[in-house]
């Protein structure tokens, strides 16, 4: 019964997340990728490099046929709700990533792309250490969300336009 359901879903084009067109790209199709502009964001850099490597890219500091220029990584935090004592009960954190993709020697490319991720977390004003941990976890999740979004966009770009992503 289960195998019949799986066969039916696969036959109609259904794929589990991560098993669709992006997952079909082979490592041979994905290039070395020079990432510029991450020195100010080491925590995000680690998450992004790991995510890209997991998708088959080869992140490097050396010149490469495709360069990812990180222009800005910003974080905005605002109160989302308040408790009866008028203390912040929940925060909303929004992170934006502005970048451009440069192929070959085309440094003059002026097209910027922007990705956004947001998370909410419960504030704990009576427990500052717990509050800081909630915030840290929310920001860590934002990093992962942005890295995943960027990796998905780059994978789609390179699998659809292979000639632009190879040396």
Describe this structure in words.
- The protein is an alpha/beta fold.
- It has one domain (27-165): Lipoprotein like domain (Double Stranded RNA Binding Domain, 2-Layer Sandwich), CATH 3.30.160.150.
- The chain is built from 4 helices and 5 strands, in the order H-E-H-E-E-E-E-H-H.
- It has a 5-stranded mixed beta sheet.
- A hairpin with a 5-residue loop joins strand 3 and strand 4.
- Helix 2 (42-54) packs across helix 3.
- The longest helix is centred in the C-terminal third of the chain and has 33 residues, at 128-160.
- The radius of gyration is 20 Å and the shape is elongated.
- It starts with a helix and ends with a helix.
- Residues 1-28 have low confidence and may be disordered.
């Amino acid at each position: 019964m289960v195998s019949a359901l799986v066969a039916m879903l696969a036959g109609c084009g259904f794929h589990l997340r991560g098993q669709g067109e992006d997952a079909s790209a082979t490592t041979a199709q994905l290039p070395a990728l020079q990432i510029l502009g991450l020195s100010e964001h080491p925590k995000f850099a680690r998450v992004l490099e790991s995510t890209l490597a997991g998708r088959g890219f080869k992140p490097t500091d050396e010149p490469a046929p495709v360069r990812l220029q990180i222009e800005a990584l910003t974080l905005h935090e605002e109160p989302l709700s308040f408790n009866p004592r008028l203390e912040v009960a929940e925060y909303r954190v929004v992170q934006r990533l502005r970048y451009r993709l440069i192929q070959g020697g085309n440094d003059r490319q002026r097209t910027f792309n922007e990705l956004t991720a947001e998370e909410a977390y419960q504030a704990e004003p009576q427990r500052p250490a717990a509050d800081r941990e909630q915030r840290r976890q929310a920001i860590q999740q934002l990093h992962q969300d942005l890295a995943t979004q960027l990796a998905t966009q780059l994978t789609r770009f390179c699998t659809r336009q292979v000639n632009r992503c190879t040396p």
